[in-house]
């Protein structure tokens, strides 16, 4: 048990002996280079435009397909009377009307 | 250069003042990032990002804290953000590995790098402690790292973390207690 306590104490102390590390002496030059790069206008590659165009086409196709299906469904619904006249028959209700 | 003078010049985008700031604080910022990331390349990259953010956001800095505190705050936040992103990437690469893209797991960014400031005789112990530190709640980890690795006082940590000194004392006390428990479990399981 005492051994474990000692190990724990030694491990906890080990972090206190970490030496500070010197940074890159050319850090400022690197930062400046990066800042200059960031300030330049970014050129979007043709591949990005192509990807965007494909996405737009897919979305467009989906919209057209869904709207066509929806409109067809609306046309296909007929009332009872309309359906009767369309087929040239009368409904049974009309036969017994006074 | 006085702090007020430096701040004024930085707000006017003075290049010489920015160079002075970088040269004065680059080691401190680098070591703070290194304490969290434990990878020289990643820490250097993040140090550059910290200074760029300082340059861009110094206009909104009201000057109610020291410039060094402002720098530490950005360095800590950026390091934590970076670690979160890395964790997410790791999870994603694990999913990819399930679908047979194992090489993602072996990419260079996933190889555990070492903190160059660790003394050779303490290597094993410090690595063990680092692994247990990573299991601590975020605030405890930040306070413990700033105190033990960067050598900041309770007051300085309180300013960086925007908490009271007593809150920092409590965080450090809990961090130490948690680490002791975790290490005890580890050594007992090793026996």
Quick description:
The complex is a heterodimer of chains A (98) and B (191). Chain A is mostly helical and 98 residues long. Helices cover 70% and strands 0% of the residues of chain A.
Tell me what the structure shows.
The complex is a heterodimer of chains A (98) and B (191). Chain A is mainly alpha-helical. Chain A has a domain of 48 residues. Chain A has five helices and no strands. Chain A is elongated. The relative contact order of chain A is 0.04. The model of chain A has no long low-confidence stretch (mean pLDDT 83). Chain B has 191 residues and is mainly α. Chain B folds into two domains: 85 residues, RNA polymerase sigma factor, region 2, helix turn helix motif (Rna Polymerase Sigma Factor, Chain: A, Orthogonal Bundle), CATH 1.10.1740.10; 74 residues, Arc Repressor Mutant, subunit A. The N and C termini of chain B lie far apart (57 Å). Classes of the chains: A mainly alpha (98), B mainly alpha (191). The interface between A and B is medium-sized, with 24 and 35 residues.
| Rg from Cα of chain B | 19 Å
Mean pLDDT of chain A: 83
Count structural domains of chain B.
Answer: 2
The backbone outline of chain A, from C-alpha atoms, is elongated
Assembly status: heterodimer
Largest sheet of chain A: none
Low-pLDDT segments, ≥5 res of chain B: 105-112
CATH names the topology of the largest domain in chain B as Rna Polymerase Sigma Factor, Chain: A
- Overall, the morphology of chain B is globular
Distance separating the two termini of chain A: 107 Å
The CATH class of the largest domain in chain B is identified as Mainly Alpha
Contiguous runs where pLDDT drops below 50 for at least 5 residues of chain A: none
- CATH architectural type of the largest domain in chain B: Orthogonal Bundle
């Amino acid at each position: 048990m005492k051994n474990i306590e000692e190990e724990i104490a030694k491990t906890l102390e080990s972090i206190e002996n970490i030496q500070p590390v010197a940074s890159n002496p050319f850090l400022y030059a690197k930062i400046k280079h990066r800042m200059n790069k960031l300030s330049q206008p970014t050129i979007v590659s043709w591949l990005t435009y192509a990807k965007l165009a494909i996405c737009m086409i897919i979305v467009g196709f989906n919209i057209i397909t869904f709207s066509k299906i929806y409109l067809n469904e609306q046309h296909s619904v007929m009332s009872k009377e309309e359906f009767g006249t369309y087929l040239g028959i009368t409904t049974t209700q009309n036969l017994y009307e006074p | 250069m006085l702090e007020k003078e430096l701040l004024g010049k930085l707000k006017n985008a003075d290049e010489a003042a920015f160079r002075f700031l970088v040269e004065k604080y680059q080691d401190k910022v680098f070591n703070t990032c290194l304490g969290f990331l434990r990878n020289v390349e990643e820490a250097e990259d993040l140090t550059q990002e910290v200074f760029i953010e300082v340059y861009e956001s110094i206009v909104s800095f009201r000057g109610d804290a020291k410039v060094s505190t402002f720098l530490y705050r950005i360095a800590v936040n950026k390091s934590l953000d970076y670690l979160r992103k890395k964790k997410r990437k790791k999870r994603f690469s694990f999913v990819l590995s399930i679908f047979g893209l194992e090489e993602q797991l072996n990419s260079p960014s996933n190889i555990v790098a070492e903190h160059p400031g660790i003394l050779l005789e303490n290597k094993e112990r410090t690595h063990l402690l680092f692994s247990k530190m990573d299991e601590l709640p975020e605030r405890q980890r930040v306070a413990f790292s700033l105190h033990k690795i960067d050598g900041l006082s309770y007051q300085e940590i309180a300013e960086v973390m925007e908490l009271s000194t007593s809150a920092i004392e409590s965080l450090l006390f809990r961090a130490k207690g948690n680490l002791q428990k975790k290490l005890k479990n580890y050594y007992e399981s090793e026996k």
